[in-house]
Structure formats: structure tokens, C-alpha cells
Amino acid sequence: MGAITLFIRKNGKSRIGREQVSVAFTPSRVNIDKYLERLMNIGKLGTGFTSTMEEAEISDLIAECLQSFQRQPMMIECSPPITIVGDIHGQFGDVMRIFNTTGFPPDTNYLFLGDYIDRGQFSIETILLLMCIKMKYSENFILLRGNHETKLINRIYGFYDDLNKRFGTPRLYDDFTRMFEMMPLTGLVGKRILCMHGGLSADLANAPKLDILNTFARPLHDPPNPSLAIDILWADPDINTKGFKANIRGCSCTFGPDVVAQTCEKFGLDLIVRAHQVVQDGYEFFANRKLVTLFSAPHYCGQFDNAGAVMQINPNMVCSFKILRPEFPGRADPSHQKSATTILLPPTIT
Length: 350
Hints:
Elements: H1 12-24, H2 32-40, H3 49-52, H4 55-70, E1 75-78, E2 82-85, H5 92-102, E3 110-112, H6 123-136, E4 141-143, H7 151-154, H8 159-167, H9 171-180, E5 186-189, E6 193-196, H10 202-205, H11 228-234, E7 236-237, E8 244-246, E9 253-255, H12 257-267, E10 271-274, E11 283-286, E12 291-294, E13 308-313, E14 319-324, E15 341-343
Helix pairs in contact: 2-6, 4-6, 4-9
């Protein structure tokens, strides 16, 4: 097992150390290794996760994972190397494909940008797998909140119905909701790459310091529109926008290349990484390569022919993209459609 090279800087190590000691004396009712064993066997006859795991077991896992999120700042500062993952949307097989391609934790550090549930067929399995890994390798496996980790969305896009169908009760949905409300919203890699699910906000652009991203009170219920939190979860870049404008989604805003440039200059950032939108090649640049949209669910919903991608940042802050092409059984992909890696030049070190 590789050494953990990603760590939380905010408030120093002493805060984390004290809390880890206090938790160590509290017996856990969650056997993470057993849970992971069951999850890794999904697909074999008689090994369906929710048919072999009790509701109470899942509830215990949620409760402990909630505490893990609560101990972390709302903006998590971390160091490379790290792999950044965009929207997953219940595509369990593609999560496993990502791990097989870029490395399993803890040998590879990960930062996920949200939207683990809804749309896909395996939302419950996907979020539980990620929660188990989070519990096992808390400091080098980061899960940010996406807009689908809100009741406004997951109540109607599949997650609520899936839980009710499998367990016949909304109790677990309420437990998950409380956990989602504790999740961090942003990540900062090497103090130079800002990560979130949605996008930028006028409240951030007008803030004197980036520390405003640590000021949210928990639990953070579905945020009001407009607000800084709603923009972090929902905002979109738009080439035709100057400044900020209303979003055609009916929620949050769009922002232009000028906002990206100004935000990067003001806070000393080289790049902004966000998710939230399907892009054909799995990643797409904006604002003279100052922002990139990352989407990690290939063949999204079984309806799109998009690729997925993950972004890898090495210890020297050199960034690259691992592209995951859609896989169609029985169909040979053209050679130019094979998975590939595209290398960026390292950001200028200041």
C-alpha cells in the first residue's frame, strides 16, 4: 500500500489528530472491509449489495461517514499527486473502470467533484462504495458535494425512488440527506487549482479572501437561490456571457471568461476545475485554459456517446487527462477512439 501523500492543511494537523484520537476510543459498528468485500462482488449471482445488507448497517455507515465529513473544512486544501473525478451518476461499473485505470486507493489519491447518484442504475451501490473508501482512507479520498446531493434534485431524479423501492421506507433517504448536508463544497490543490462541482459566484468574486469558502455553517441545507453555495453547486461558464447572468437552468447563474480571469488573478489561481455538464471528450477548456469542465461518466445514461475523463495532477503540478471512451459490447472501436492521455504544460510556478 502506498504512503498517503495528500493531506488536509486547513487548521493544521493538530485538529485532525485530536479528533482522530477521540474517535479511536469509540467502538465502530461498521466493518468497512466486509462492506467493501460485498461491494466488490456486485454482479455475481446472489451478491446484490442491498439484498445482503440490512438497512441498519447502511444507516450505521451513513452516521459514521457524516462524522468524517463534519471533521473536514468546507474547503479542503490538499497536495498533489491527486486524481480528480467529475460526475459519476450511479455508473458503478465506470467507477471501477476509473480505479482499474488510474489506481485504487490509497495508492492513488482522489478528489471527486460530486453527483454520485441519480440517473444511473446503481446510485446506491456507487455512493456506498465511495463512502466505504472514504471511511477507510479519509485523508486521501475526498468527496465534494454536487447539486444532486440536495433534496431539490435527488428527490425527483431517481435516488429517493430507488431507496424506497429497495427498502420500502424513506428512512435511509433522510439519513443520506443529513450526510449530504455535511459534505465539503470545494477543494484547493497545491494552493493553485480550485475545484468545485458547479462554478463561480459574484459573492466569491467580491470577497477579499478565498477563505470565504470556509465560512459555511453546517448542516448546509439546500441553499437559497441566489447565494454563494448555490453557485458553487450550479453555476455554468458561458462564452457569450460577460460578468454574471441568469442561468437558463432556472437556478444560479452563468459567468463569462472575464470572471474566470479576474478570479484567478485575484486569488493567485492557475486553474479552476469543475464538473456539472456533459462534455463530449470528458473534458473541455474555457477562458484560455483557465477553467476546465470534467465529466467522468462515459456513455452517459446509456443515451449519449460521450467519453468520460479524469484529471491527474503529478507532484510537480503537471496536469494530464485520462480519457475513458464508451464501451459497446460486440463493437470494435476505431483506433482513434481508444483511451488516451492528453498532457498539459505545467502551470507557471509563482
